[in-house]
Amino acid sequence: MTQQSAAATPMSKEMQDCVNACMSCHSICEETMSSCLQMTDQAPTRIMRALMDCSEMTRMCADMMMRRSPLATEMCAMCAKACDLSAEACMSMPDDERMTRCAESCRRCAESCRAMAGATM
Predict the structure, then answer these.
(1) Which residue among 7, 32, 83, 108 sits deepest, i.e. has the most Cβ atoms within 10 Å of its Cβ?
(2) Cα–Cα distance between 58 and 16 in angstroms, integer?
(3) Residue 14 is inside which H or E element, if any?
(4) pLDDT by residue (tens digit) across 30-89?
């Protein structure tokens, strides 16, 4: 299959679900970073770094899947790692509702990305 015909092929439901999970995770990571910046006590640097990495990776991963990049499979694997680290960092503040919601979104995205990383795109 040529690159042009691959892009013309409709996305599978699994790939579309992964793109949606990535975009949702990207959005909540951005919102959580904004919330962290407004906290009276500073959010730990580790959490902010994890959120930034996850936000960037999920956006890039979705973009690569949508354009059927030959690197999308590897990107999905890296994205899953970034999401796992972000979820872990967010759960270091388990009493914060936004952090908990962000961690849940990161976990869903990581699961979807891991599935896509094992799929042939």
Answers:
(1) 83
(2) 13
(3) helix 13-37
(4) 999 998 888 767 668 889 999 999 999 999 999 999 999 999 999 999 999 999 999 999
Q: What is the maximum span of the chain, computed from C-alpha positions, in angstroms?
A: 55
CA distance 119 to 121: 6
Q: How far is CA 96 from CA 2, 16, 39, 100, in A?
A: 48, 30, 11, 6
Residues 6+ apart with CB under 8 A from 4: none
Q: What is the CA radius of gyration of the chain?
A: 15
pTM above threshold 0.70: yes
Mean pLDDT within 3-28: 84
State how far the Cα of 107 lies from the Cα of 118, in Å rounded to an integer. 17
Nearest-angstrom CA–CA distance, 46 and 10: 39
CA 94 to chain centre: 20
